[in-house]
């Protein structure tokens, strides 16, 4: 029997509600299969932890995480307690960087049983490959002067290695899918980095003559996500553009509460981290109504990562069945609680045992 060792970080806000729900579902998946098991070790690293300890995780936090097969994270952020840039750079972004999780995979698809806000949603199914380690998320820059002359400078960092790596990942993924890659650019307005991005895209594309491509400015691309999402297969985007596009991907599915994500360490020298697209949603935390599907679909991405694609497919099918039968949280127009959705998914999974 294969036993996967998972480090669990519920984090803040609704992370503490949707993570336990998704762990119940993972346990049900293991019960169905019989050949796999999970060991979940939980860490309370969060903004509450910061208030007590003055840091988001202990000094040896990364070396503790390193030995796990994967990290399963809810969400980080409680701006009432800790400024966001401190909490995020102290935990989520720190893990992404230190563990070289350079690719962030974020699928979106027309989801059975959901009412998409699009007037005429067609069957869409795309994956955003988000560059996850550099770009606009950089520590280069600073604050100078004060008063009326105050200036904040933020330098975006695009390396050929990082840019090319994200693009090659997208092309390889497209080969296993519908054979199409779209590049999210902004080379009309961003003077240095985006013309560079286009150049690297043209270079990489030459190695994949069998893959069709398109390139759109990010503003137009955002509009196309609304007007014709069914025309996309794999979309490769910089860190910030990918961030924004994937909340939009969630929204056109019906709610950002269902959008999943996987932070992938491509070399396999550190664990990858599985964490949904949404945040800690302080506005609904504590009500028991957070949608657990983003976290549960994220668990499916973790199963895929472990090579358990069949189990992953079964899980997603069951989630769609439950949604189509109307067991939905309020963000999807339903009345079910977080726990009810998860319990129904577990019940149906066990029917497959
Ligand atoms: P958010 O994603 O937390 O919430 C945006 C809106 O979507 C809110 O109205 C929220 O109620 C709703 N929503 C989000 N997830 C939902 C779910 N599962 N079910 C139902 N509704 C859901 O974004 P925000 O408000 O910009 O950020 C809140 C905090 O979370 C901030 O501290 C932010 O920095 C942090 N954040 C963390 C992550 C992460 O850890 N991966 C991601 C995004 C934001
Ligand atoms: C995400 C989040 C993070 C990001 C924030 C919380 C730093 O929005 O994972 O999408 O921008 O990467
Ligand atoms: Mn985001």
UniProtKB/TrEMBL annotation:
UniProt entry keywords in alphabetical sequence: Manganese, Metal-binding, NAD, Oxidoreductase
PROSITE patterns noted in UniProt: IDH_IMDH
Record field: catalytic activity: (R)-malate + NAD(+) = pyruvate + CO2 + NADH
EC number(s) recorded for this UniProt protein: 1.1.1.83
One Pfam family, short name: Iso_dh
Isopropylmalate dehydrogenase-like domain: residues covered: 5-345
Keyword NAD assigned: yes
First and last residue of the signal peptide: none
Gene3D superfamilies: Isopropylmalate Dehydrogenase
Keyword Magnesium included in the entry's annotation: no
Highest taxon of the lineage: Bacteria
Coiled coil spans: none
Cofactor needs: Mg(2+); Mn(2+)
SMART domains named among the record's database cross-references: Iso_dh (SM01329)
Family, as annotated: Belongs to the isocitrate and isopropylmalate dehydrogenases family.
Protein name: D-malate dehydrogenase (decarboxylating)
Organism of this sequence: Geobacillus uzenensis
């Amino acid at each position: 029997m294969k036993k996967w060792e998972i480090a669990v970080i519920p984090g803040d806000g609704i992370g503490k509600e949707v993570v336990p729900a998704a762990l119940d579902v993972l346990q049900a998946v293991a019960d169905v299969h019989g050949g796999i098991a999970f060991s979940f070790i939980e860490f309370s690293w969060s903004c509450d932890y910061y208030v007590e300890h003055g840091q988001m995780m202990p000094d040896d936090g990364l070396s503790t995480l390193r030995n796990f097969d994967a990290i399963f994270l809810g969400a980080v952020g409680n701006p009432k307690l800790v400024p966001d840039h401190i909490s995020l750079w102290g935990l989520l972004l720190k893990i992404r960087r230190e563990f070289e999780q350079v690719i962030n995979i974020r699928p979106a698809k027309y989801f059975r049983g959901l009412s998409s806000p699009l007037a005429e949603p067609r069957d869409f199914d795309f994956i955003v490959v988000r560059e996850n380690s550099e770009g606009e998320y950089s520590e280069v820059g600073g604050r100078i002067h004060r008063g009326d002359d105050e200036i904040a400078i933020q330098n975006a960092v695009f390396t050929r290695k990082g840019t090319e790596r994200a693009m090659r990942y997208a092309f390889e993924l497209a080969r296993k899918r519908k054979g199409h890659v779209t590049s999210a650019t902004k080379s009309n307005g961003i003077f240095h980095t985006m013309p560079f991005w286009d150049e690297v895209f043209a270079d990489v594309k030459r190695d994949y003559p069998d893959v069709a491509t398109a390139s759109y400015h990010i503003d137009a691309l955002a509009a196309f996500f609304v007007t014709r999402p069914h025309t996309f297969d794999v979309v490769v985007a910089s860190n910030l553009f990918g961030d924004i596009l994937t909340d939009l991907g969630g929204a056109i599915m019906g709610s950002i509460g269902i959008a999943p994500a996987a932070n992938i360490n491509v070399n396999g020298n550190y664990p990858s981290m599985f964490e949904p697209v949404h945040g800690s949603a302080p506005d609904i935390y504590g009500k028991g109504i957070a949608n657990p599907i983003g976290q549960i679909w994220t668990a499916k991405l973790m199963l895929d990562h472990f090579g358990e694609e069949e189990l992953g497919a079964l899980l997603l099918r069951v989630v769609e069945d439950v949604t189509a039968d109307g067991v939905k949280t309020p963000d999807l127009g339903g009345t079910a609680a977080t726990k009810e959705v998860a319990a129904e998914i577990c019940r149906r999974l066990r029917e497959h045992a």
